[in-house]
Amino acid sequence: MTSPSTDQWFKSTYSGGSGTECVECALGESCTLVRDSKQESGPAVVIRHQAWDFFVDALRRGDLDN
Looking at the 3D structure of the chain, how many domains does it have? Predict the structure, then answer.
């Protein structure tokens, strides 16, 4: 799998506003990549689209709130 180009990464709307806990995402052909925005050349977590969609839907419903 090749890494997405720089312009394909976007900041998650769920990242905090303080600038210390920003998460970036990129949508690949069959997966979503997630990385720390402060470490652009660092590792990324690879998540299959179905699992990512389930996660985002659960966030929107508030199922993952404490």
Answer: 1
Instruction: Categorise residue 38: left if φ over 0, alpha if ψ from -120 to 50, beta otherwise.
Output: alpha
Asked, for residue 17, whether it belongs to a domain, the answer is: yes
User: Could you tell me if 24 and 37 are in contact, meaning their C-beta atoms sit under 8 angstroms apart?
Assistant: yes
Distance of alpha carbon 17 from alpha carbon 37, whole angstroms: 13
Give the range of the structural domain holding residue 56, as residue numbers without chain letter. 8-61
Question: Torsions phi, psi of 16, nearest 5?
Answer: -70, 160
In a domain, 3, yes or no: no
The span from the CA of 55 to the CA of 44, in Å, is 17
Condensed to tens digits (0 to 9), the pLDDT of residues 8-58 reads: 888 866 666 666 668 888 988 889 999 988 888 889 999 999 999 998 899
**56 close to 62: Cβ distance less than 8 angstroms:** no
